[in-house]
């Protein structure tokens, strides 16, 4: 195997060696002509997306609540397995929600980290203020809701949950995969190398 060895004044050196197998064609390693630089000796993963996990609200038409306190949307909890506890997790929430026959609806969603009863709330977003024309009580009003959080869990097995609550008296529906309108709520988790 052909190689070039560049010796250091201390005696040891650096070897530039040909590849182990014959490449399909000649390869060129070009050095900069107008600036100094350093060749990296490792393939740094910093900032790379290491895994993507999607959790869908499956096996149900919808999750519903009338609670004015945060309640967990059952079916959207996800425990991840990270390669490093220092890595970050980008969480993207996409909820398809509705109300039925309410003239005025305000609600909030929240991403939670850990056990629900003791979980730390990472993000609280207002779902929205929506006026339903007519308010006859015989029609559903649909609205999507999305938000993102970048989190450093400091553990390799973080668990995330989605919670919702109403601000006024109403019923909030979060749609799953089996609803007739084809709406589907989900959360996407991306592990990003630190």
Polypeptide structure, described:
The protein is mostly beta strands. It contains no helices and 13 strands. The relative contact order is 0.30. Mean pLDDT is 84; it is low at 131-136.
Main features:
five-stranded antiparallel β-sheet; six-stranded antiparallel β-sheet; 194 residues; elongated; mainly beta
List strands and helices in order, with pairings.
Elements: E1 3-7, E2 13-17, E3 49-56, E4 62-65, E5 71-72, E6 78-79, E7 88-100, E8 104-113, E9 120-131, E10 140-151, E11 159-166, E12 172-175, E13 186-192
Antiparallel strand pairs: 1-2, 3-13, 4-12, 5-11, 6-11, 7-10, 7-12, 7-13, 8-9, 8-11
By secondary-structure content and strand pairing, the structural class works out as mainly beta
Order of helices and strands: EEEEEEEEEEEEE
Q: How many strands, which pairing sense, and closed or not: the largest β-sheet?
A: 6 strands, antiparallel
Unreliable stretches, pLDDT < 50, 5 or more residues? Answer: 131-136
Query: Overall mean pLDDT score?
Result: 84
Q: Can you count the beta strands?
A: 13
Helix content percent band: under 10%
Terminal Cα separation, in Å? 38 Å
Strand content: over 45%
Radius of gyration: 26 Å
Separate helix tally = 0
**Overall shape:** elongated
Described by its quaternary structure, the protein is single chain
Short characterization:
The protein has 194 residues and is mainly beta. The chain has strands at residues 3-7, 13-17, 49-56, 62-65, 71-72, 78-79, 88-100, 104-113, 120-131, 140-151, 159-166, 172-175, 186-192. The protein is elongated and about 80 Å long.
């Amino acid at each position: 195997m052909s190689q070039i060895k560049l010796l250091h004044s201390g005696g040891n050196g650096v070897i530039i060696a040909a590849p182990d197998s014959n490449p399909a064609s000649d390869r060129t390693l070009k050095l900069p002509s107008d600036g100094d630089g350093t060749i990296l000796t490792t393939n740094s993963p910093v900032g790379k997306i290491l895994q993507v996990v999607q959790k869908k609200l499956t096996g149900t038409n919808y999750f519903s609540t009338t609670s004015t306190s945060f309640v967990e949307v059952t079916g959207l909890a996800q425990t991840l397995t990270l390669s490093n506890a220092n890595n970050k997790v980008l969480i993207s929430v996409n909820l398809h929600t509705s109300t039925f026959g309410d003239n005025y609806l305000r609600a909030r969603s929240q991403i939670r980290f850990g056990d629900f009863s003791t979980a730390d709330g990472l993000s609280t977003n207002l779902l929205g203020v929506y006026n339903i024309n007519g308010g006859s009580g015989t029609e559903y009003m649909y609205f999507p809701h999305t938000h993102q959080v970048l989190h450093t869990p400091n553990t390799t097995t973080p668990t995330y949950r989605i919670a919702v609550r109403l601000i006024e008296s109403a019923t909030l529906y979060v749609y799953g995969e089996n609803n007739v309108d084809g709406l589907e709520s989900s959360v996407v988790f991306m592990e990003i190398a630190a």
